[in-house]
TrEMBL record:
Keywords: Hydrolase, Metal-binding. This is Hydroxyacylglutathione hydrolase. Coiled coil: none annotated. It comes from Mycovorax composti. SMART domains: Lactamase_B (SM00849), RHOD (SM00450). InterPro entries: Metallo-B-lactamas, Mito_Persulfide_Diox, POD-like_MBL-fold, Rhodanese-like_dom, Rhodanese-like_dom_sf, RibonucZ/Hydroxyglut_hydro. Residues 266-305, 362-443 form the Rhodanese domain. GO terms for molecular function: hydroxyacylglutathione hydrolase activity. The keyword Zinc does not apply. Transmembrane segments: none annotated. PROSITE patterns: RHODANESE_3.
Length: 444
């Protein structure tokens, strides 16, 4: 028996391959959009992929489950509650998949979603591991507010929070203490709020350290779970539905995106996502462009700023960077909305640089916009009179920002403020002056 954990750092996502060495067969759990790493793993071990299990229809990334099934002949296993549109075999409470000397047992664990399952792995009759999807994380549990407007079953966050309490305390907490916990996400995901960066744990350790498994009433649990959840990116409901249907083959889909080495004829109202470093962007960029750099959260912010189905352009400094941006857009199913991808190294517009010392002396002379998340602002407001609008909500709230004074945008380190300041510049009147405080915010 072998368990391989794959990590997509950008989405803080873990997927798994379970290998039966005696049978030379593999079952995958929650694979990411690009299936190639799983094919490579199978080839390395001279094994066949015979099954793919989806713990639920994911909101934060697009799975390759349908592509893998079509390519390899593997069976897709998923809860019947998903209402999946693709060929599949139901995998619900007590149902078992035999894999060599292993048994994979379905546990229905609603809470993060009404159709969530966990998978208990037994080897030679002994509980060894549990794959918890977005139900139990290391140090936390899944958020219950993502299925109020998506999926075949839509429930309120209160109903799902109540279900989560029982899934955790009456199912997962009853497993043996030495059972290894393999979650679908680590620190950095928006599917929970206080995850550890540890890639795995045990049931025993989580019962000692994870707040969600501590003795408490149902009401106490619900109150803590629902408090201070992070924002919900615009693309989350879109991905739930796409995963219920199944996405187009990854390589084929990204290769369909039109590309040119020069700036093509652009439609004026379509946003340009410029992925170059902020220094290069500020020196020269195209009108109606947003500086969304290739950081760890590129997919999250792309899917927060650009609405599902909205056309957009991708611009980057070279072909390799263009390809990377397209592939990362595909991770959330956005590659089909890219109208054109192209190389750009300058533009007709420049972003003015802020005189930080002047700003420090006279902050009241500026409109200050704080684009950090609500929880960050709650912990510490850096500027007393700032307007707090999280980056993920900025585009829909631009009318709340007065432009009579120069505008200074800040976040916690510079990545989000680069995107936000460029977005404001693209959407505000032409005479508005917008500055990015950048990493100088760390000195305040």
């Amino acid at each position: 028996m072998q368990i391989e954990q794959f990590e997509d750092v950008s989405l803080a996502h873990y997927s798994y391959a379970i290998l039966s060495e005696c049978q030379k067969e593999i079952i995958l759990i929650d694979p990411s959009r690009n299936p190639q790493p799983y094919y490579d793993y199978a080839k390395k071990h001279d094994a066949r992929i015979v099954g793919v299990i989806e713990t639920h229809p994911h909101a934060d990334f697009v799975s390759s489950h349908v592509e893998i099934a079509n390519t390899t002949g593997a069976t897709i296993y998923v809860s019947e509650k998903v209402g999946a549109f693709y060929p599949h075999q139901s995998f619900d409470e007590g149902q078992i998949i035999e894999l060599g000397k292993m048994r994979l047992i379905a546990l229905n664990t609603p809470g993060h979603s009404p159709d969530s399952i966990c998978i208990l792995l037994e080897h030679e009759g002994i509980q060894k591991a549990v794959f918890t999807g977005d139900t139990l994380f290391i140090g936390d549990c899944g958020r219950p507010d993502l299925r109020e407007g998506a999926g075949s079953i839509q429930l309120s966050r209160n109903e799902l929070a109540r279900m989560m309490y029982h899934s955790l305390h009456e199912k997962l907490a009853l497993l043996n203490d030495d059972v290894i916990v393999y979650p679908a996400h680590g620190a950095g995901t928006l599917c929970g709020k206080n995850l550890s960066d540890a890639p795995k744990s045990t049931i025993g350790i989580e019962k000692q350290t994870n707040w969600s498994l501590q003795p408490m009433s149902e009401q106490e649990f619900m109150q803590q779970l629902l408090e201070d959840q992070p924002f919900i990116p615009a693309y989350f409901p879109f991905d739930v539905e796409l995963n219920r249907k199944g996405a187009a083959p990854f390589k084929e889909s990204v290769e369909k995106v039109p590309f040119s080495t020069m700036v093509p004829n652009l439609e004026e109202e379509i946003l340009i996502i410029d992925t170059r470093p902020q220094d290069a962007y500020k020196k020269g960029h195209l009108p109606h462009s947003v500086n969304l750099m290739k950081g760890d959260k590129f997919e999250t912010w792309l899917g927060s700023i650009v609405k599902p189905g909205e056309p957009f352009y991708i611009a980057a400094a070279d072909k390799s960077s263009v390809d990377t941006a397209i592939e990362r857009a595909a991770a959330i199913g956005y590659e089909t909305s890219i109208q054109h991808a192209f190389i750009v190294n300058t533009g007709s517009l420049a972003q003015p640089l802020l005189d930080v010392e002047e700003f420090r002396k006279h902050p009241d002379d500026y409109t200050i916009v704080d684009v950090r998340n609500d929880t960050e602002v709650k912990k510490r407001r850096i500027f007393e009179n700032s307007i707090a609008i999280p980056l993920g909500q900025l585009r829909n709230n631009i009318d709340k920002i007065p432009s009579g004074k120069p505008i200074v945008v800040h976040c916690a380190g510079g990545y989000r403020s680069a995107a936000a300041s460029s977005l404001l510049r693209a959407k505000l009147p032409a005479d508005a002056v917008v500055y990015d405080l950048g990493d100088a915010v760390k000195t305040f």
